[in-house]
HTH tetR-type domain-containing protein (Streptomyces canarius), 215 residues
Amino acid sequence: MSTQASDRRRPYRNDRRAKAAAGTRATILDAALRLFVEHGYAKVTIGDIAREAGIAVPTVYASTGGKAAILATLMYRGVDDPVVERTLETVRTATDARMAIAATARGVRLDNERHLEIVQVMVTAACVDQRVQEELDEVVRRYRRSLGVLAGRLAELGALKPGLSAERAGDMLWFLLGLPSWRLFITGCHWSWDETERWLTHQVTAALLAQPTGD
């Protein structure tokens, strides 16, 4: 076989290997999530994940790392969900304060709804694994920075209540739209996602805007 022919085929083989590796990684992550949700993070071993995924233990480590690394990857599925950037772009360009609030509430609702199971897992896992706690702290920091975009935009629009700084508004947004609020209403109080989104949107509007109006 000529060198040119070999070079033409190599990109195809490399692409095929990359797709196979990505498929293996996805299989491992999905298996881990099922086990974490069903049995709890602390009780699941890498061996359990390997068996659930139908993959050898060394392959699990090579593809995704240890248990904490697997959970961290699952956690960042929510942080990196495309809905986050779409929501932030809508807020950055919003010309109406209420529209910006509604867009943020809808975006964080969708992100939490899609990834509620892993949120539950990571909160409980953080109690028993310091590495998970550190990753959770970073997730919270990034979540709060995203909410800070809304606070900043409301300040730019001159929509915040007199004397309310963007920084203080960001703290209030975390209280109202952060991870604990969605978990409280959805899993603790058994509200629907629609009910929770409507109520939290109203609360943010009433708490932050200079002249809030009803729904």
